[in-house]
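Q: What structure does this chain adopt?
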Amino acid sequence: MKIEPQKSAPLTVNLAHETDDALIVRTAWLYYMAGLNQEETATRLGLHRTRVNRLLAEARERGLVSITIQHDSARELQTEHDIAQYYGLDFCLATPRIGFEDIAANPSLTTAQGMISRRAVGSAGANFLRGKLSQGPITIGVSWGRTIEQVALHLSGVRNPEARFVSLMGSLTRNSASNPFEVVQALAARTGGEGHFLPVPFIADSEADRDVLISQRTVADALSIARTADLYIVSIGELTENSSLRTQNMITVEELRTAREGGAVCDTLGKLFASDGRPIDHDINSRAIAVDIEEIRGRDIVLLSGGLEKIDAIQAVLSSGLIRGLIIDGDTAQVLARRCGRS
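A:
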């Protein structure tokens, strides 16, 4: 008669007395090569799990273990991590790189790269927003720009009647391109939510005009909603002749010149910033009808930006410490990471 062996706990060894060098190699082999988890490795070697964790960490620090992820997206993941760590962000999401590596040598590619990048970032932003909208009631403050417009165009497959979208800045511009009113209404229509906008210009003619306009009840109510939003989706503008502020004649050539002479390289929500993230005092700030970005500092502000032409603007706003999350195209992210000295 065949006698079946009785099942019992696995026979283990106790190697706690061995040197760390010997244990590091044995622990790393069991965990990485044999596929044991930390608890199983600790049991096999007769060690406490906390010591196994420490030995594995030391193996990585000393370069005894090399982990390689064979996938094209691994490089983007490292870039995302480097940018988030450098600027103290909660997260960075980079789209796959297109391959505009040497755009400086061929300026004619700038327009094409910017257009492709905005679409990619808009799609990634819509995907991010889709996840937030699936969680229940939410109020989302939205700025404006060509990248934000792409978010509205790409958002689909989600319904949330308890969602509210509100403009963070004046919704009337000189033409319909990237009009904040249209973006907010498109987001509301695609989700079945509510849309609230500021029925006033983004840049008033004077500070006195601005005071009159923001005192209107409809404007005051919308700004009140905007100040208490759960999430803020913002973009940035580079201060050049090709920026939206100039192409839509919201500021004059002279105002652009004086802003740049004062050290400004970009704007977001009507506030100007220097390359190191310092706010720049300028007449434009006092005439902008928008939520004061300093009032929402520390809140969940996510920057969406695409295009290598905006690299200086992105770097400036990230340096301000206002941004908690970044969604960016892969080519621009790669350049940004290099400037951080990381990739």
